[in-house]
Amino acid sequence: MRADALTGPLADTVDLPNFTQFKNESVNFLNHFSVTSPCGPARASLLTGQYAMNHRSIRNGTPLAHDTPNLALLLRHKGIEPLLYGYTDTSQDPRIYERNDPILTSYEEVLNGFTEVQEMRFDTNKSWKNYLKEKNYKFDKLFEIFEPIDKKINAPAKYSADDSDTAFLTDSLLKDLQIRKKGWCAHVTYVKPHPPFVAPAPYNSLLRPNEMPIAHKISTNDQHPFDDPSKQFRRAKDMVIGFQNLKECSKTTAEIRAVYMGLIAELDAHLGRVFRWLKETEQYDETLIVITSDHGEMLGDYDCWGKMHYFDGAFHVPLMIKAPKSLQGTHGIRIKEQTESIDVTPTILDIMGIGIPDDIDGSSLKPFLLGKKPKDWKKATMSEVDFGDPINPTIWQSHFGLASHECNFSVLRSGRNRIVNFASKLPQILFEIKEDGDVNFLNDKEEYQETKLNMVSELLSHRMRNAGGKFSRIMITESGPVKGHY
Questions:
Q1: Among 210, 206, 202, which Cα is nearest to 156's?
Q2: How far apart are the first and last CA of the chain?
Q3: CA-to-CA distance for 341 and 351, rounded, in angstroms?
Q4: Is the peptide bond before 324 cis (omega within 30 degrees of 0)?
Q5: How far is CA 242 from CA 141, 149, 205, 286, in A?
Q6: At what angle do helices 165-177 and 126-134 cross, to 10 degrees?
Q7: 39 is catalytic
Q8: N or C: which end of the chain has fewer CB within 10 A?
Q9: What span, in angstroms and rounded, lies between the C-alpha atoms of 196 and 8?
Q10: Phi, psi (rounded to 5 degrees) for 408
Q11: Is the bond preceding 17 in cis, omega lying within 30 degrees of 0?
């Protein structure tokens, strides 16, 4: 989910009553960024509080070391059972399993520490698939269910709104929570609005394509060598099922965006059900609620689709936090300071009174929830993407003749400026985000060369300051291990 689907031009196209009410009851972080992409790495960072450069689960399918601290384990150590409704896309550590263990055959396994209550994985999705079969929907492979009933992008899905994956997960959540004693902890991970984009009636035609904000564009002169293979990697036709000859044009982009926002409206309706249940059972005021996303989606901006890009659309995600009433926090305010997905886990730990391990890179947002700005708050955010594959070379590896370890970039954001640095010999990129959201490339402008140098220096310093820190504050002394505080 992109940030502007909840606060911004896209959000302005549709009525989202439950998200809107929640904004008024929570703290809305306007400049919140995922630190990596795609799904597996992004969720690893979200739940461990670590940059990808430290946890190193950098692709869907790259294992996460089993002893990496994470939110679920830290809560469990304090006697709180973290319940999972959905998925985490965690690839397990092969060092602690036999080679033929089935858990090592899927990147969609569950993060250590969670109790999987309702399975809702993206590729397999056995529970929802079996549910649809029981309801007499006809299909052989699950992806077939995502092809609309007619050859129109906004044609309705083959399943009804009552049987959608979003409805199914919400039904499962509410059914299970009714038997839980107060004090439960739920991680609820909806698949949609993940592509393929198809929505059940009436959400498929809730919006008209001509109501959608026009996608951002860049001139051909500003193209970077990375851009062309990126556009080939994911195209508009890859965002839907059954449209292999889909024309790349503004009309197609608008049609897909309208369906995308229909899926946001569907999610709004079901979150409204969750909120109502919490209020009816008198749990809403005392529940800490965090709404966020693992990564964004380009949605045709700069002719890009998917999330393997350096533009903000791939990383700028919503974050809204409603503190429990007992915290006596603020609500209905908007925070403009830059925040990162790695800040979510330490925030939850801090609110719960649980110590934050040294090897968590993020910082607690609790002061913001209390109406205070922390001293020396971060002035920049960083995201990383690994676009290589050590087994099956990616389009970038083939195009540029790169090894997998050369296929990654880091993007540092400071104010409106962004610097992108590649591990390979691909040239750096300096650009700014203008008031209207378009980008202005500054690489070749003489007056910005000092800015470029300063931002590259800050990116290097940022990575050095945030190198893995499991034992960085511990010294072995004559008295044994001693933890420092400076």
A1: 202
A2: 38
A3: 16
A4: no
A5: 14, 10, 18, 46
A6: 100
A7: yes
A8: C
A9: 23
A10: -155, 155
A11: no
User: Residue 202: is the preceding peptide bond cis (ω within 30°)?
Assistant: yes
User: Which residue, chain included where needed, has tokens 């915290």?
Assistant: 327
Q: DSSP assignment of 12-56, as one string?
A: GGS--HHHHHHHHTSEEEEEEE-SEESHHHHHHHHHH---HHHH-
Class of 3-377 in CATH: alpha beta
Helix, strand or coil, per DSSP, at residue 381: strand
CA 430 from chain centre, in angstroms, equals 24
Amino acid in the structure at residue 24: N
Which amino acid would we find at residue 50? Q
Only one residue has tokens 């378009």, namely 438
Contact 301, 311 (CB under 8 A): yes
Q: In angstroms, rounded to a whole number, what is the distance separating the alpha carbons of residues 273 and 271?
A: 5
Each residue's pLDDT expressed in tens, for the chain with a length of 486 residues: 999 999 999 999 999 999 999 999 999 999 999 999 999 999 999 999 999 999 999 999 999 999 999 999 999 999 999 999 999 999 999 999 999 999 999 999 999 999 999 999 888 889 999 999 999 999 998 889 999 999 999 999 999 999 999 999 999 999 999 999 989 999 999 999 999 999 999 999 999 999 999 999 987 777 899 999 999 999 999 999 999 999 999 999 999 999 999 999 999 999 999 999 999 999 999 999 999 999 999 999 999 999 999 999 999 999 999 999 999 888 999 999 999 999 999 999 999 999 999 999 999 999 999 999 998 999 999 999 999 999 999 999 999 999 999 999 999 999 999 999 999 989 999 999 998 888 999 988 999 999 999 999 999 999 999 998 888 888 999 999 998 877
Crossing angle of helices 17-24 and 250-280, in 10° steps, is 60
Asked whether 286 and 226 are in contact (CB, 8 A), the reply is no
How many other CB atoms are found less than 10 A from the CB of residue 85? 22
Q: Strand 408-414 and strand 82-86: pairing?
A: unpaired
Count other Cβ atoms within 10 Å, centred on residue 150: 10
Contact criterion met (CB below 8 Å) for 216 and 438: yes
Residue among 39, 185, 304, 407 flagged as catalytic:
39
- Residue-range domain boundaries for the chain: 3-377
